[in-house]
Design brief:
This protein is α/β, with parallel strands linked by helices and about 400 residues long. Helix content is about 25%, strand content about 25%. The chain has helices at about 10-20, 40-50, 80-85, 125-140, 155-160, 165-175, 235-240, 265-270, 275-280, 320-330, and strands at about 1-5, 30, 40, 65, 70-75, 75-80, 120, 150, 180-185, 190-195, 210-220, 245-250, 290-295, 305-310, 310-315, 340-345, 355-360, 370-375, 385-390. The protein has a four-stranded parallel beta sheet. The protein is globular, with a radius of gyration of 20 Å. The model has no long low-confidence stretch (mean pLDDT about 90).
């Protein structure tokens, strides 16, 4: 997690988020950024050097930025892109520039990333609203409602049409896993786990009811200009309305679909057990101008359920488990045992994984079936963070 020492609210938000997510102090990196919307390149280079030379940098997989300013570097690049991929060296020529390719774009659930993605932990308003966002993300991990996904087509063809093919593909290929509506009906939608559309501004946001862990975004030119200094709705309005993550661009990108979250990729990876940061990051092919906003660790669709009871870790199959095993088995080498997956379990809160046990699972599986029970000699297991790694 990154905090800005020049912003007292950032320091306090970092403290609160560390408590909510159990982030150890060695995983909190302090920067000194100007408390303004845009940061100059030379100042950002200094802070990137501070970040990359910190003792724990190499072991961190991604970043929560516990501040809302700066959100842009110079005139062209988002702060989340800069933290993840460094300052862009491309030559900008007006608007509509193709930008640097995201090497992680299109990867599937659980894929190893080559970058360290970042998400700005902000609700675009008060400290209390940002803390509430963090708490929504944590609540999503234990939320049992599946919810629904709404892909809202509009008469704004420049903003709506670029993603409609992917929306239809998501409905066709993923509709068996979650309820998906591809519609032009602007009615009060509730029970939402995701909503994507294309409009410059989205009216009546108070009519949308989001579940913990929900994502929402609108394809428009300046959704990532979160200080409100333009006529288009900032992406943070989705967060204020109850969403847990969103996305917007910080400059005129033109309506290249590769610069915005691909609906099929986001949903496929989220349903496959990725965090919202991973799912969103892998859905955007060109991330340079894109600002990722929300609680990055939200994971409402874990590949299995884990509970602690009497110092034992009990692992049960959920709605995603069998689909996960099938996906992994397709990656297995020839002559391997079909549809069998070995998972390793680790404590991960120190930054260095501490192995617990390995288990093997294979379908058919029943919902709620106990897959394994692992004795845990450690004290205070409820305060520890559990990680899962595919062994084979």
């Amino acid at each position: 997690m990154l905090v800005n020492l020049n912003d007292p609210n950032s320091v306090e938000l970092g403290k609160r988020y560390a408590e909510i997510r159990g982030i150890p102090s060695e995983n909190i990196i302090e920067l000194r950024l100007p408390n303004v919307g845009y940061v100059a390149r030379h100042l950002m280079m200094r802070e990137l050097e501070r970040l990359k030379t910190s003792s724990n940098y190499g072991r961190l997989a991604g970043f929560a930025l516990a501040f809302d300013r700066p959100y842009r570097v110079d005139a062209n690049q988002s702060i989340t892109s800069t933290i993840s991929q460094g300052i862009s060296t491309m030559r900008w020529q007006g608007s509509c520039n193709p930008t640097v390719a995201n090497p992680d774009a299109g990867k599937g659930p659980g894929a190893v990333l080559t970058t360290k993605p970042a998400m700005m932990l902000t609700a675009g308003g008060s400290l209390a609203e940002s803390v509430a966002l963090a708490e929504r993300g944590r609540a999503a991990d234990r939320h049992t409602q599946t919810g629904q996904i709404v892909f809202l087509k509009t008469e704004d063809m420049a903003r709506s049409r670029p993603r409609e093919a992917s929306m239809a593909r998501a409905q066709r290929t993923l509709g068996g896993q979650i309820e998906i509506a591809l519609t032009e009906q602007r009615e009060p939608w509730g029970n939402l786990m995701g909503l994507q559309t294309g409009l410059a501004t989205v009216p009546s946001l108070n009519e949308f009811q989001f579940l913990p862990g929900a994502y929402a975004d609108h394809l428009t030119s300046n959704g990532g200009v979160i200080d409100g200094k333009n006529s288009q709705m900032p992406a943070t309005e989705w967060i204020k309305a109850g969403a847990t993550a969103s996305f917007g661009t910080v400059r005129e990108p033109c309506n290249f679909p590769s610069k915005f979250p691909d609906p099929t990729r986001v949903l496929s990876n989220y349903l496959g057990g990725d965090t919202i940061l991973e799912a969103y990051w892998k859905s955007v092919s060109m991330t340079t101008e894109g600002l990722f906003i929300g609680e990055p660790l939200s994971r409402p669709f874990p590949v299995l359920d884990a509970t602690f009871a009497d110092r034992r870790l009990v692992l049960r199959a959920n709605r995603q488990t069998e689909a996960f095993v099938k996906r992994q088995s397709r990656k297995a080498p020839p002559r391997s045992i079909e549809r069998q997956v070995q998972l390793g379990f680790f404590w991960v809160e120190t930054g260095t994984p501490e192995w617990i046990a390995d288990i093997e699972i294979r379908p058919p599986l029943k919902l709620g079936e106990v897959l394994a029970t692992i004795d845990l000699p450690q004290d205070e297991v409820n305060r520890r963070s559990l990680g899962v790694l595919v062994r084979k």
